Amino acid sequence: MGAFIAFKNVTKKFGALTVVDNLDLEIAKGEFVSLLGPSGSGKTTLLMMLAGFERPTSGEIFLDGKPITHLPPHRRQMGMVFQNYALFPHMTVAENVAFPLEMQRVPRAEIVRRVERALDMVRLGALKDRKPSQLSGGQQQRVALTRALVFEPDVILMDEPLGALDKQLREHMQLEIRDLHRRLGLTIVFVTHDQSEALTMSDRIAVFNAGKIEQIDTPQMVYDRPRTRFVAEFIGETNLVAGKVVDAGGERAVVRVGDAALSVCGNVQPGRDVSLSLRPERIRLGSTPAAANALPVTVADCIYHGDHMRLVLKSGSLELVARAERLAGDWPVGTEAVASFDPQDCTVLAS
Ligand SMILES: Nc1ncnc2c1ncn2[C@@H]1O[C@H](COP(=O)(O)OP(=O)(O)OP(=O)(O)O)[C@@H](O)[C@H]1O
Ligand SMILES: [Mg+2]
């Protein structure tokens, strides 16, 4: 099956500034794709081009195989949810939700029926006569979501829709959006700053950096197999360790770090200077020498975090951060120990 949404060589410039840089992106029907990246990396601009509010400087955008690059927004069948809800304050909940249908000149009786059904779907039926000011932030966001869903769009675009909500409500809405996505088979493109939000909600994550996608993969691949230094550092916390490849074949390599020869994952050429990415929670600490992938370390710092401890470990000039679960014992400062990890938990970065 071909891609449902496709960007082909899309560039967007504002004056001399290239904001989206010769970008290719394919999204399947029914997929939930998050765009994750630092401020100014081009996420909103990409969404605006998909919705039709911005034109690419060059390149082409396709929906279901047809070029839509020059189609106006109202002919694209896409629902949009913005960070600041953008509800009409003088209209009731039901009137807000009805608005896009009225714009499309749907008959009155059908509007009433569809609005009711959409509000029930997000459990807002009881609040339909209230004004936005009489709703909580989460309820307002649900109304905005309902308004995007009511005309049964092919695609829902969301630009940091949960950014203004407190943590508890945000997590609740994350589950609700995920559930709607599954139940309705929606195609969702979801912009977020929040990496844990992207990891928990998406089928795939596109990591943006300066107008380019550095990696697009499942949450697990992006986290466990970052391809670049940028991705490794942007998502989660990681230790970057410099070393030299001494042996390599297939997806495995042996990398010399100081006196140690470490078995790691990744496709690289022998002789290259590389960086390794090793997540803090993948480091095991023991008091006896480990068989493989072991580094002698001294505990240089130990910080209490409630459910876990963060340990700073020194091995010669190398410094590693490790995360120790509470049950894994006490590691007071000054303790000499052995840090080790499994080869599949350490990735060679391409750049
Ligand atoms: N209409 C515009 N005119 C000029 N420059 C713009 C315009 N819109 C966006 N930009 C610039 O394009 C770059 C990318 O902006 P964009 O809004 O796509 O970033 P973003 O990834 O969504 O960032 P954030 O996470 O802060 O929302 C920024 O440098 C921004 O200043
Ligand atoms: Mg933005």
Automatic annotation (TrEMBL):
The keyword Translocase applies. SUPFAM superfamilies: MOP-like (SSF50331), P-loop containing nucleoside triphosphate hydrolases (SSF52540). GO terms for cellular component: ATP-binding cassette (ABC) transporter complex. Residues 5-235 form the ABC transporter domain. It catalyses: ATP + H2O + polyamine-[polyamine-binding protein]Side 1 = ADP + phosphate + polyamineSide 2 + [polyamine-binding protein]Side 1. Its EC number is 7.6.2.11. Keywords: ATP-binding, Cell membrane, Membrane, Nucleotide-binding, Translocase, Transport. InterPro entries: AAA+_ATPase (IPR003593), ABC_SmlMolc_Importer (IPR050093), ABC_transporter-like_ATP-bd (IPR003439), Mo/tungstate-bd_C_term_dom (IPR008995), P-loop_NTPase (IPR027417), PotA-like (IPR005893), PotA_ATP-bd (IPR017879), Transp-assoc_OB_typ2 (IPR013611). The keyword Metal-binding does not apply. One of its GO terms (molecular function) is ATP hydrolysis activity. The complex is composed of two ATP-binding proteins (PotA), two transmembrane proteins (PotB and PotC) and a solute-binding protein (PotD). Belongs to the ABC transporter superfamily. Spermidine/putrescine importer (TC 3.A.1.11.1) family. Part of the ABC transporter complex PotABCD involved in spermidine/putrescine import. Responsible for energy coupling to the transport system. This is Spermidine/putrescine import ATP-binding protein PotA. It comes from Chelatococcus composti. The gene is potA.
